Amino acid sequence: MAFEGLTEKISNTFKKLKSRGRLTEADIKDAMREIRLALLEADVNFKVTKDFVKSVTEKAVGADILESLSPAQQVIKIVNDELTALLGGQNARLMIAPNPPTVVMMVGLQGAGKTTNCAKLAGLFKKQQQRRPLLVACDVYRPAAIEQLKVVGSQLGITVFEMGQGDPIEIAKAGVDYARKNGHDLVFIDTAGRLHIDEALMDELKQIKKTVKPHEIMLVVDAMTGQDAVNVAQTFDEALGIDGVLMSKMDGDARGGAALSVKAVTGKPIKYIGTGEKLDNIEQFHPDRMASRILGMGDMLTLIEKAQETFDQKQAAEAAKKLSVGKLTLTDFYQQLQQMKNMGSMKDILGMLPGVDANALAGAKIDEKALAHTEAIIQSMTPKERDNPSIINYSRKKRIAAGCGLKIEEINRLLKQFEAMQKMTRQIVGMQKRGKRKKRGFPSLGNFKLPF
């Protein structure tokens, strides 16, 4: 994920500050020098870095900070506040028109992920706000661009309007008319890109803008291109007048310099970020939450939101009820695994917890393959076997092993671990019923571990 190197360096700087107790002006200046180097190594714009360090230093060397009871914490708060401001301060949302449809023109260079993120953004609004988006295919030059949009649109259940390799300006106009007539309240126009900015590209985009009068022009830039992404944003804004940025491939950029520079250089906010290859790997950009992640403080709000979006409340209530009486089944366990999987990788989830930094996770053994094996085994069982694993004899195990392509030993391991979990659950429930939980504590887990 982005900012891994920066987070590590800033966290180490803060540890040094905390260990010193009382701080002097020299201590703060030494810390700011380290942060300045960390920002430059993260490919943050030089002028942005210079202004950021100057602002933090001026606020941190004040007498009220140096003489406070916890000066290190005060400095950390100042850095957090300034970082949030650097990233944009307030959340910036897509502007929704009072009279539908809202027209969003997606622009950017080839290779930035414009077509995919166009569909991702439409899918996000469909899922979160129950909108009826329409995707309009205006990239008539890149081979298979229209087909790509149709494929991702189909996967998300979103209508795609296309007129083949025609005039993109006429297609954009016809697409908006189609949306108006067919009750679509959001229109995302996927425009053509180039390998570099040229006059022909800008003239076409200006003509589309003049014809359809979009409510929002969203620029898609590749976070992995660093300062080039900032330069692209600046050029597009000067020529076209963008309203916001969608930063793609944030999961692949360990430095994060583009995200920290784009708002300060262009004045345009980052509104959304692409966080992976899957079509639901997109999220709204929150400057305060991103600042918290950079400083190693986690991002509990985003984690909670992901859980709320992913977990079925009814299923969760039923599972809790079964757990309270010690009757959790493999069916329930499988449903919980599926919902956890939909939240993203275990590394991403743990990375949002306060105090868990990406560097520490690098050596952690989060076996996603074992999780997939567990799912495959449970899927190969009949509903009766999932609800009552005790009936699974040797012949049933052979059938399950053949169904999931794994060895019988792995089936046995899962069943033993699940049996241990059930036993532990019954013990806890029994202790709660007898009112002896405080006296005896939790039962020993022995060698039990989760089956993934």
Automatic annotation (TrEMBL):
Transmembrane segments: none annotated. One of its GO terms (molecular function) is GTPase activity. Part of the signal recognition particle protein translocation system, which is composed of SRP and FtsY. Keywords: Cytoplasm, GTP-binding, Hydrolase, Nucleotide-binding, Ribonucleoprotein, RNA-binding, Signal recognition particle. Its main location: cytoplasm. Involved in targeting and insertion of nascent membrane proteins into the cytoplasmic membrane. Binds to the hydrophobic signal sequence of the ribosome-nascent chain (RNC) as it emerges from the ribosomes. The SRP-RNC complex is then targeted to the cytoplasmic membrane where it interacts with the SRP receptor FtsY. Composed of three domains: the N-terminal N domain, which is responsible for interactions with the ribosome, the central G domain, which binds GTP, and the C-terminal M domain, which binds the RNA and the signal sequence of the RNC. It catalyses: GTP + H2O = GDP + phosphate + H(+). Pfam families: SRP54, SRP54_N, SRP_SPB. Residues 430-452 are annotated as: Disordered. Residues 269-282 form the SRP54-type proteins GTP-binding domain. GTP binds at residues 108-115, 190-194, 248-251. It comes from Candidatus Butyricicoccus avistercoris. GO terms for biological process: SRP-dependent cotranslational protein targeting to membrane. It is found in: Cytoplasm. Its EC number is 3.6.5.4. Belongs to the GTP-binding SRP family. SRP54 subfamily. One of its GO terms (cellular component) is signal recognition particle. It comes from the Bacteria. SUPFAM superfamilies: P-loop containing nucleoside triphosphate hydrolases, Signal peptide-binding domain. This is Signal recognition particle protein. HAMAP family: SRP54 (MF_00306).
